[in-house]
Structures are given as structure tokens and as C-alpha cells.
Design brief:
A two-stranded antiparallel ribbon has the order 1-6. A two-stranded antiparallel ribbon has the order 2-3. A two-stranded antiparallel sheet has the order 4-5. Helix content is 52%, strand content 7%. Strand 4 and strand 5 form a beta hairpin. The protein has a domain of 120 residues. With 325 residues, the chain is mainly alpha-helical.
């Protein structure tokens, strides 16, 4: 028995929640942290000519203004108290604690140095080397200059300390040139075609950079397949060992969205952080343009659209404050 396939259109009832654009925007603004909110405001100010910062708005909430009046001209004392918040004698004083996000290149290398070396003077030599690395992790000084600066007559000792540092992570650190940087990484990886890689790095790096494989084959006598395999491996090495460590942000600080404060009248209450968040308004000039009879339809439509966007964005920020409270 054969069954024929047929296409039919059937009515179907579905319950589906659809949020209005203003509600979607309010939810998006609500989820933003203070720093992200500032960035969003800056982007809106650049894209919407009807939106502007209200310079006439008070810089601080009434509660903060009252606190400022209590301290008179002692602004330094007021700033300290404002940053700490209001606490009763029984409250635990919590300081703003930085969150360490990563170690600098120098910190990382110094830790490895103190693990590998025990001699205090050799550690001093290593610290001098680490202090003379450029942004890419290459050594800016020579062993001769280090010997003169530290008064070391034993040149072999300086070379030995440098070799130790060059074996640290990231591989290739403290190299004096690109060839040495790549060679160190090849020796550490020990690929099957190690000698071919070292030969190309030592004498044919310029040709390799321009992919002149036939020229390398003619100069070295190495088969083309091995040259290409070595080139592929060398391309995966890191020419700038300090790349993942530069630039570095030593620490970041938590910026709260709300403060829990206490006073004698209201007890504990929630205050939404407005630090760095400007007060916004619709530009009066563009608002007055809408009342002109000679305004073209295209201009009127544009201003009305931007006017709606500006008012909705301002309402979303206000709604964010009410929701957080």
C-alpha cells in the first residue's frame, strides 16, 4: 500500500509572551553593572543627538548633601566617611579589597628565579636581567654590561644565570634576538626535525619569512618536504614571549550597584549607586523643533524616532533605580 504525502495548512492556537521594545530595553539596562551602564550611556549619547547630559542636575543625592554640610570645610574627612559608608559601632568595617587577576611578567619570572637559584648573588644577577626586559620579553642589555654594572669578573657565571632564565616560562624569555628566541623554543619542544628547524632559523630566517622554500632547498640541500614541515612548525612558535603578559592590569576593584546605609530617621535603607552615572535629558532645541509647522516630514519622523529612543532610555535608567531599591 502506498501512502501519498500531502501538505495541509491547519490553524493552531499558541500562547506566547512578547515583550514590548521598551520592556526589553528596561531589562537590558537592569542587568548592567555601574561600569557597563556608564559605557551604555556614552554610546547612546554618541548615537542619539536628542540625548544630552543634564548639567543642572544635582551632583549628589540629598542624603549625601546633608552629610557634606555636617563636615563643613573638612572635605577630606567627608570624602573618607562617604567612601566607607555609614556604620554603627556594632557593624563590621569592610574595606574595599582589590581582586588580583594576574601576575605580571616580572613577578612570574622572579618566583621561578628564587625556586631555581639559591645563591643570593646569582639571584641578584637574575633580578638585573629580569629588570632589563623590553615589552616583548627580549633582553635590552648585554652580559658585558651586566658584568660591569654588578662588578662581576666571572663572565661564565653571568652566562649561566642567563641560560637559567631563558629556560623559564614563557619559553624564549630574555632572548637577545629573534633567532635565539625561536631556537630556545625548538630545543624545548624537541621535534623530529629539530636539526632542520635550527638550521633554517640560524641562517635562512629571512627567506623563511618570504616563503622562499626553493631557495632554502638550494642553499641547504634539505628536501622540500622537510623544509615545509619545519616551516610549519616554526610558524607555530611565539616570536614575542611576553605577548600574553602585556599590557597588564595589576588589580581591579569591585564597584557596588547599591549601598546599604543607616541613619537615625529611617534606619537601614538602600541607596542606588550613581557614582559616575550622569543625569540625562532630552535636548530642548530638538524638542522645540517638533512644534514648527514648516518642518519637513522626513525631519519630523527622524526627530520623533530619536525622541522616543531618548525618553525610553531615560525611563529605563530610572526604572533600574526603582527596581534595585
Amino acid at each position: 500500500m502506498l501512502f501519498a504525502m500531502q501538505v495541509q495548512i491547519l490553524p493552531r492556537q499558541i500562547q506566547k509572551t512578547i515583550l514590548a521594545p521598551i520592556m526589553q530595553q528596561s531589562i537590558e539596562v537592569l542587568l548592567l553593572a555601574v561600569t557597563e551602564l556608564n559605557l551604555s550611556i556614552e554610546q547612546e549619547l554618541q548615537s542619539n543627538p536628542l540625548l544630552e547630559i543634564n548639567e543642572e542636575a544635582p551632583a549628589a543625592p540629598d542624603s549625601v548633601a546633608k552629610e557634606a554640610a555636617l563636615y563643613g570645610d573638612d572635605l577630606l574627612r567627608f570624602s573618607r566617611v562617604s567612601l566607607q559608608g555609614q556604620h554603627s559601632p556594632d557593624d563590621e568595617i569592610l574595606e574595599e579589597i582589590p581582586i588580583k587577576i594576574e601576575f605580571s611578567l616580572e613577578e612570574n619570572l622572579l618566583r621561578q628565579l628564587r625556586i631555581e637559584l639559591c645563591n643570593p648573588f646569582e639571584i641578584k644577577i637574575g633580578e638585573y636581567f629580569i629588570g632589563n626586559l623590553d615589552e616583548d620579553g627580549y633582553l635590552k642589555t648585554t652580559c658585558e654590561e651586566v658584568a660591569v654594572a654588578l662588578g662581576v669578573a666571572d663572565r661564565a657565571r653571568i652566562d649561566r644565570v642567563l641560560k637559567v632564565i631563558q629556560g623559564f616560562e614563557p619559553l624564549g624569555i630574555a632572548s637577545r634576538n629573534l633567532e635565539e628566541c625561536l631556537s630556545i623554543q625548538v630545543l624545548a619542544a624537541r621535534p623530529s626535525h629539530q636539526n632542520v628547524c635550527l638550521a633554517i632559523i640560524a641562517d635562512h630566517l629571512h627567506n623563511l619569512g618570504h616563503k622562499r622554500f626553493p631557495q632554502i632547498v638550494r642553499d641547504t640541500g634539505i628536501p622540500l618536504s622537510e623544509v615545509k614541515a619545519a616551516a610549519h612548525f616554526i610558524a607555530g612558535l611565539e616570536p614575542k614571549p611576553a605577548r600574553n603578559y602585556r599590557p597588564i592590569r595589576s588589580s581591579i576593584y569591585i564597584q557596588p550597584d547599591v549601598f546599604i546605609r543607616k541613619d537615625d530617621e529611617r534606619g537601614y535603607y538602600v541607596e542606588v549607586s550613581r557614582e559616575g552615572v550622569p543625569s540625562l535629558r532630552v535636548n530642548a532645541y530638538y524638542r522645540n523643533l517638533l512644534g514648527r509647522a514648516n518642518l519637513s516630514g522626513k525631519d519630523r519622523e527622524f526627530i520623533q524616532e530619536k525622541f522616543r529612543d531618548a525618553t525610553n532610555f531615560i525611563k529605563s535608567i530610572e526604572q533600574r533605580g526603582h527596581t534595585l531599591r
